[in-house]
Amino acid sequence: MKPIYLDHAASTPVHPEVATVMYNMLLNEYGNASSVHQFGRSAKRIVNGARDRIAGSLGCSPEEWIFTSGGTESDNLALFGAAYASAPKGKHIITTAVEHHAVLHTCAELAEQGFEVTYLPVDATGLVSLKDVESALREDTVLISIMYVNNEVGTVQPIEEIGRLAAERGVLVHVDAVQALGTLPLVLRELPVDYMSFSAHKIGGPQGIGGLYVRRGAPLMPRQHGGLQERGRRAGTESLAHTAGFARAVEMAVQGLPEHHEQALELRAALLEGLDKHAGAGGYVINGNEQHSVPGILNVSFPGARTDVLLMNLDMERIAAASGSACTSGSLEISHVLRAMKLPEELLNSAIRFSTGLGNTIEEMQVVAQKVGTVLNRLRNRD
């Protein structure tokens, strides 16, 4: 059987068009965009062209876009850069208990350096309360950091409402939008957000490159020093192949959003229909918010089974799924997101994330559901 990949929330296959763009760059373009000769000028045009195309696709100005090495660096740059630039006004930061570790660990480091961090709770579906955000605001609050789409359960947070509330209080807002790009419509100039983080490898682009939107006028203290690349905000020679590949991936993700959404809905429905048939309608529980979520991320618990055993058995059946964030799933620890949702132990210990994307088919969903049922029956009969 051909392997079935259902871990697109961790990383996606590079789209063939993106690979072609990058291949041509690697073969034909090798100048440094900071050089003044013709090779450097050609490289500069490629980087600026990629920036222009991304800005055009996401509805912002080119000068508001910074190329980074990925979502983690974008989160770090936004949090450290905004917090230290705003420190004279205050040192209080608000975030949630279900953020990606790129945000949580950065906030922990900021706390070690004298900032105070408030971690907002979420409800049983992973949704943060606007009232909790408002109650947490203080005179010395300088930054709110809340992700758009949760990478483990797919819950969509009320970013526009939070952004408007923060703007009224003069508080900066950072949004980790790594899972939102390609799944939600984004027009950055219309969103009440100051910083937004992105990653190429979640949308059919290459690993190793991301971006940070910084609203014009929003303060940002650089974290990486050297040259004057990215308008002095992020030093380092730009990768021509990566920037060009990222730009093509963003264009396709934005243009193909309606089709991608419809396909994700169909795949989700097929997988759930199959689970009803092979695992039993009462044999599993969906984790997350069914009303406010993206269809491509489906987190399911199978009471009576263990996550690690399920994943191992599915892997032997050549099916790739995950236990949560790719940055922690290698250790198979209990998800901090599910814990923050205060789920019962039987759901915490049996949760699996299926995430769909390019190349997945309804037939694959039927096979996955059948294999899940087979594995569950084998495990339960063994007990």
Automatic annotation (TrEMBL):
Q: Which residues form a coiled coil?
A: none
Q: Where are the transmembrane segments?
A: none
Specify whether Ion transport is a keyword of the entry: no
| Residue ranges of domain Aminotransferase class V in the record | 4-366
Q: What EC number(s) is this enzyme filed under?
A: 2.8.1.7
Enzyme class name? transferase
Q: Which UniProt keywords apply?
A: Iron, Iron-sulfur, Metal-binding, Pyridoxal phosphate, Transferase
Domain of life of the organism encoding this protein? Bacteria
| Cofactor needs | pyridoxal 5'-phosphate
Give me the reactions it catalyses. Answer: (sulfur carrier)-H + L-cysteine = (sulfur carrier)-SH + L-alanine
Q: Which family does it belong to?
A: Belongs to the class-V pyridoxal-phosphate-dependent aminotransferase family. NifS/IscS subfamily.
Q: What is this protein called?
A: cysteine desulfurase
- Source taxonomy: Bacteria, Bacillati, Bacillota, Bacilli, Bacillales
